[in-house]
Amino acid sequence: MPLTVETVMAANRSSYTPKQLPEAFFASAGMPRGPKLTQTAIEPAFLPETRPGRLETRVPPDPGRAPYRIGIEDKLLLATPSAATSVEQLTGLLAAENRRQGYTVQDDGAISIPDVGRVVVAGKTLEEAENAVFNKLVEAGINPAFSLEIAEFNSQRVTIGGAVRNATVVPLTLTPLRLNQAINAAGGFDLADRDYASIRIYRDGTLYQIPVAEYSRKGELQNVTLKDGDSVFVDTDFELDKASEFFAQQIQLTSVRQAARKNALDELEMEVELRRSELDEQRENFNERLAFDAVDRDYVYLIGEVFKQARYPLPFERKATLADALYSESSGFNSRTGNPRQIYVLRGSENPREFSGVTAWNLDATNAANFILATRMELRPNDVIFIAEQPITKWNRVLTQLAPNLVSSSVAGVVN
After folding, report:
1. Do residues 185 and 198 share a domain?
2. Is 315 domain-assigned?
3. Does the residue 233 lie in any domain?
4. Of the candidates 218, 222, 215, 225, which has an alpha carbon nearest to the alpha carbon of residue 180?
5. Pick from 166, 167, 172: which is nearest to 154 by CA?
6. Would you call 164 helix, strand, or coil by DSSP?
7. What angle do CA 94, 99, 102 make, to 5 degrees?
8. Can you tell me the distance from the alpha carbon of 230 to that of 62, in angstroms, rounded to the nearest whole number?
9. Which one, of 203, 91, 78, 61, lies nearest residue 147 by Cα?
10. Are 202 and 230 in contact (CB under 8 A)?
């Protein structure tokens, strides 16, 4: 039967599922989430005996106003419009919004968004992080209508200890943290006499001091801006021994946390490298089995006027067409000797009762418009593609086979 739009549609209705590649070709090494370091509460330092005297005021410099930069352990929340016109595309984002569960910045500085991938946000401002997420959504072909906010601030902290009711750790947020806010977060002062107490602030290796009595009188001292890593110690003694001990503990605790995080990252990198090596080995083994023809494949067979009569392997993960087979690199249509009017696709019947039944579709490729059908005619396993020879090619081969016999007869006659 001739190959037409109708016959192509009928032929393509036959069921066929292409062979699948092994799972190793789809899996990635990934970045498993590392252990989260827990925050350790600071115990109040021992309060030494107070001794009256004059306290010197040393106020820390103003760190200036800078936008908040997202850090490790911060939790971000992606919010999407209520009109879910892209529910299928934004399933992961909508689920996070409905459950009010955000994305925690992991040890590598990235968040992992379903169907999008990993987005590095650590060290970025909220606006820069929104741009990074926007670009990732666009790359993934997802509607980039969203808003980003920080649900939990966990990366930047100020510690407070000493003569306060509850020693604690106060996170830095989008708004600057003032000294009075930090002290209030610790429950306020726990002092018998404020005249002989001081607030000591340890910042970047320098110790600053504000007398509590002066702090209570002056609003500008209460509004001193704190920065990430500051340690505040409310002391009742003029000597710095106890305060220095407290700050030394904070420095040691910070070092332990950094060492633990480094060890966790090293373990994660090793785990990822082992996983990557395992996947590479699986892929190499599959390719070697493929080279030795030890993998179950589906084939189509090309015979007749082709450059090389061979079997054409149907590709993984997709369906091949007649045009794919005719113009494959290993064997293709020989336009010099092949007859473009007589290109056939032969397919055996799938019905056991018609075991010898064969359906033949004829493509007349002399009309270039008909060749569009070749790009739509899907191939099935064990199809046979046959290209007949040109009439002149048939006569040429007859003459080529007769010529040696004629020459031999002529020579024999001359000799006799």
Report:
1. yes
2. yes
3. yes
4. 222
5. 172
6. strand
7. 75
8. 13
9. 78
10. yes
| Tokens 């064969």, located at residue | 358
pLDDT tens column, 346-365: 998 877 777 678 999 999 98
Is 287 part of a structural domain of the chain? no
Residue 405 carries which side chain, given as an amino acid letter?
N
Helix (H), strand (E) at residue 147: strand 147-152
Residue 408 lies in a domain: no
Strand order of the β-sheet with 157-162 is 168-171, 157-162, 231-235, 198-203, 206-211
Amino acid (1-letter code) at residue 110: A
Query: Does one domain contain both 141 and 212?
Result: no
Question: CB of 178 within 8 A of CB of 225?
Answer: yes
The total domain count for the chain is 3
Can you give the CATH number for the domain in which 244 is found? Answer: 3.10.560.10
- pLDDT digits over 162-193, tens only? 999 999 999 999 999 999 999 999 999 988 77
- pLDDT-based confidence at residue 36 (cuts at 50, 70, 90): very low
CATH number of the domain encompassing residue 115: 3.30.1950.10
171 and 121, same structural domain? no
Residue-range definition of the domain harbouring residue 74? 69-152
28 DSSP assignment: -
Q: Is the pTM above the cut of 0.85?
A: no
Place of tokens 């500008």: 220
